[in-house]
Amino acid sequence: MAETPMKPRSFQEVILRLQGYWAAQGCAVMQPYDMEVGAGTFHPATTLRSLGTRPWAAAYVQPSRRPTDGRYGENPNRLQHYYQYQVLIKPSPPDLQALYLGSLEAIGIDMGLHDIRFVEDDWESPTLGAWGLGWEVWCDGMEVSQFTYFQQVGGHDCHPVSGELTYGLERLAMYVLGVDHVMDMPFNDPDAPIALKYGDVFRQTEQEYSRWNFDVANTEVLLRHFEEAEAECEAILRQEATDPKTGKTIIMAHPAYDQCIKASHIFNLLDARGVISVTERQAYIGRVRALAKKCADAFILTEAGGAGTQEATA
Amino acid sequence: MPDLLIELFSEEIPARMQAHAAEDLKKRVTDGLVDAGLTYASAAGFATPRRLALTVEGLASESPTLQEERKGPRVDAPEKAIEGFLRGSGLTRDDLEIRDEKKGQVFFAKISKPGRPASDIIAEVLEDTIRNFPWPKSMRWGAGSLRWVRPLHSILCILTDEIGEATVVPLEIDGITAGNATLGHRFMSKPGDWIVPGSFEDYEAELKAEKVILRAEERAEIIWQEASNQAFAAGLEVVEDQGLLREVAGLVEWPVVLMGAIDAEFLDLPPEVLQTSMREHQKFFSVKNAKTGRIERFITVANRETADHGATILAGNQKVLSARLSDAKFFWENDLRVAKEGMAPWLESLKNVTFHNKLGSQAERIERIAMLARELADVTGADADLAEQAARVAKADLSSEMVYEFPELQGLMGRYYSEAAGLPAEIAAACEEHYSPLGPSDAVPTAPVSVTVALADKLDTFTAFWAMNELPSGSKDPFGLRRAALGLFRIVLENNTKLKLSQVLSESFDSRLKQTTKVLRRYITTGSSDEKMQIVEEQISALWQTSEKRRDGLLVFLHDRLKVFLRDEGIRHDVIDACIAMEGNDDLALLVKRARALQEVLSTEDGENLVQGFKRADNLLTQAEEKDGVEYSFGADPKFAEDETEKALFAALDAADAKIAKASKEEDFTTAMAAMADLRGPIDAFFEAVQINSDNEILRRNRLNLLHKIREICLQAADLRKLEG
Fold this sequence. Notes:
The structure holds two protein chains of two kinds.
Chain A: H1 11-24, E1 28-29, H2 44-47, E2 56-65, E3 81-90, H3 96-106, E4 116-120, E5 123-125, E6 130-139, E7 142-153, E8 156-157, E9 163-168, H4 169-177, H5 198-216, H6 219-238, H7 253-272, H8 278-299, H9 310-313
Parallel strand pairs in A: 1-2
Antiparallel strand pairs in A: 2-3, 3-9, 4-6, 5-6, 6-7, 7-8, 7-9
Helix pairs in contact in A: 6-7, 6-8, 7-8
Chain B: E1 3-10, H1 15-35, E2 42-48, E3 51-57, E4 66-74, H2 79-89, E5 97-101, E6 104-113, H3 118-131, E7 152-160, E8 166-168, E9 172-173, E10 176-177, H4 200-209, H5 216-233, E11 237-238, H6 242-249, E12 256-261, H7 271-282, E13 285-288, E14 295-302, H8 311-340, H9 344-349, E15 354-356, E16 360-361, H10 362-380, H11 384-393, H12 401-405, H13 412-420, H14 425-433, H15 448-468, H16 481-495, H17 501-525, H18 530-545, H19 547-567, H20 573-580, H21 588-602, H22 605-628, H23 644-665, H24 669-677, H25 680-689, H26 697-715
Antiparallel strand pairs in B: 1-3, 1-7, 2-3, 4-6, 5-6, 7-8, 9-10, 11-13, 12-14, 13-14, 15-16
Helix pairs in contact in B: 1-3, 5-6, 7-8, 10-11, 10-15, 11-14, 11-15, 13-14, 14-15, 15-16, 15-17, 15-19, 16-19, 17-18, 17-19, 20-21, 21-24, 22-24, 22-25, 22-26, 23-24, 23-25, 23-26
């Protein structure tokens, strides 16, 4: 392809270029959240910060886990652990599409040669009580990103609306680098003294987790953890807003939300273990959603959630 | 007369909404203009992925001045009332007219409402249209509150007068100010190159120069022509797909057709799988070899030209397709393995798939259908064992990986997999055909085994949903029960199936009601609170309390749907009612045969008049019976016949009675109805010549009994009392 000189040469270079690009656009480049999540959306920098009236602009990599997608490292495209790149800007700027296309150029996609398309795809997260309208972005027929204008999160209308961009990093990098099997993708510079491929880093873990996710994870323990996380989340949110020790108003939206994330991930593990029936599935999703909603209710009462600002009282 | 041009420029509008939106824009704006008094000559709406446009030609430049007359208070009314009237009408006392009315002299005001310039009206109408646009789904963006399908970026709104001078209609909505400019293609027009059209013709031409084809049908035409040409040049042909063509035309502003090859390793997949995978995932057209029917290539439609003539785009698409088809091939091969071993794991896993949370699993549903199929085999002439076996595997493919991925391939995959399993051809066919007919143009199954499973499937659906009290209401029919009813009718009628519904429906209903009870109880056994258990028990008892009504209601529902179905055939609803009132109305084939014959005979002069004669006889008899408090139902004797016409009627009735009874028994309703119509002459002549209410009580009674004979004999054919008019 004609774009060779501009092209990144490794997985990490794709990530670094995205980081650089979005930093240059004024986003706070954040770090991954230190918990197990199914997608970048679960990071509080997206879920909670898309609520309330305060402007926000963040970009980050989020390691994501989807236990049911484990294929023991053998499938060229499917992984139980993968990376998402996530951008969230509130309010969504009018030129968000152009900014997004700029990011594709930054990772070496030549706009003159490719066919980029915005194809209707509405996003919904039943566990987060969230939905938005937008597109999946196609590059030459391949889905390279999800582009969403958040309308509701945790049951609350989003005012202002956040624009969310999600890139599936492995898939996007494989495309840019021209690699057919994810495990063959250069992780660092292929000319580095110790050149590593994606498989060198993750093949073994994919096998280990696939086995654990599907066959070994102790479902009784997981079920108990689910109940505990649920109870803890509710217990945290039941606390008085005023901290008796400091006398300050401290609503613990984030610690409560951690428990919600935990419950959500445990549900995913139970799902992969095949112990959740179709009817139960809906009930579990409903329970996680109820937690997410309560966390959202709590967050908008905090300063970061816009409490006390002019718009919030309007 | 000026022309109006409007364009609403936004981020990408979902393809499926575009055509409707273009029409809605046209309708809402033109309706609004007309309501405000502006006439126009013609209008047309357009849509591309990024814009909705409207041209209105020959628009009035202002609305007409309207004269309004208002009646005021009486001349001698209190001063305050008169002042109020003057304030309201904006006139002075000198402007008022005084007229004499019944109650005295009254003030009248003549108010003239001046016309308004078109641009004022347009601005109002357009703002209202934008704010209340009927998008199926709309959204907000940024910090604003306006709703549109995706962020709205700009509004072009110009009026062009006779000499070609264009002026912007002043309008601002949520920070978007209407202007006279727009943009071309997202990638192919030069960045920042604004198009400033002076008229609609300009607009369309300049868009084209900036690589945007405004008209969806023109884009579709280009795609189809180009695709056909490329396929033809390769000795192949494009598989027609109007829905896909419309969708793809809504995904591009500048269509560029590219044809690519499918890797050889995928060419042996069933053609339906290739076509579905390519259409659903990639929006590709299939290109087939007309001789072999094999799909060998694909057509993709890009939204742009490139320096390498699409080589990069095509290579990318090909790669994605290969990944997709690898999946499909993987599913196909896994499925074939399961199929060849007899599909047992699929049937097993259907135990864990809920069909409906009040009715249990798919496996339980299949069991019910299988039992029903066995019972129905008698009626359909199918081999009972084959029918039952077919019903047991007909839905096995729902567990297959391919159908999980492509639900629309259900049934078809069942056929492939049954063939692979080495099952008899009748069973393989039933797997595919038991869902039919899906729509009015879909063929009806005719093979006995297929017919049996199709009937069992549909009858199970009715009785199950009626048992659970999940009935279609209003326009809502989430489980497709109305469509299933149409399917049932067509299968029964086109195959002339002698199916007595009453018994089947009633037995099935009872067993499904029991099952629902069991399922509801099972649902609550695991760790439910007393409160929850009580709710469920209440639900169950409510289901039982109304069960008889629902069970009877099912046949009524089917009869109602049958009326709708036959209405399209031109059969009157009262004709159907006249036949429903007859015994055997649960045999739909019989019922419809009778209705068609009755409808036909009613179109003849004899038939029409016979009905009048019958009704006269029926009314006279009813009145006499009411008056006398007896029933004249016995023993009309020809020996008391005085008049020749009376004697003739006796003879005619005897002849008709035999004919109608025999023909009805043989279900030859045409003959029965004709025999009935033959009575017209004798009945008319009888009424002409004979006085029923004779002074002679014996004669009177005999004649009334004769009327009874008319009633009885005619009612063998149909309940003519139900006919209107």
